Amino acid sequence: MTATAAPPTLWLDSPTQYGRISRILHWSMALLFLWQFTGMVLKVTLGLHPRDSWLLGTHAHVGFVLMVLMVLRAIWAIANIHRRPSYGTGFLARCASLGHAALYLLMLLVPLSALVRSWASGRGFNLFNTIPVLSPGTATPAIGQFINGTRETLGASIHGLLGWLLLLIIVGHIGMVILHHWVWKDGTLHKMLGRKA
After folding, report:
1. Beta bridge partners of 126
2. Which residue numbers delimit the Cytochrome b561 bacterial/Ni-hydrogenase domain (predicted)?
3. pTM of the full predicted structure?
4. CA distance linking residue 67 with residue 72, whole number of Å
């Protein structure tokens, strides 16, 4: 007995559910974000440093992978824009649309701000310490101070602030999924699980 290939339509989005490619991108990014924010929470609560923890030591590399996946996901979403499930109409639908737009924007800006910080510091960036992504350049202190924060901004790092804002929106996203699935019981979660509601 030979396994048959899945029909192409199973890989594409449809009005009733997200296709396999969308689901793979979504859930792989969800796992990587869990990894990232677990590391950052441990860093803040336990005062860990990347030298102390392999989890923290991978932060920049996993962040870059997340940025690449986000770009692929955005391209795939645009390619499927007329096929994918609709947000519906009305106030909540507009809120869902704006919430997803904010997620996409922050998923791009958070890793980009880290890359700009590396560039401004003159360090550069090698993915997994092997693949050159950003060549070391001349340090640019003005940009570095802007990205990392100064005494006037209470040392607030733009990368960190955007990262925690992203976490807040992700928590809101999860909260809405819980509301849709267990309170309203409208089958929204099934669209990303690939099941019929």
Report:
1. 132
2. 18-194
3. 0.84
4. 9
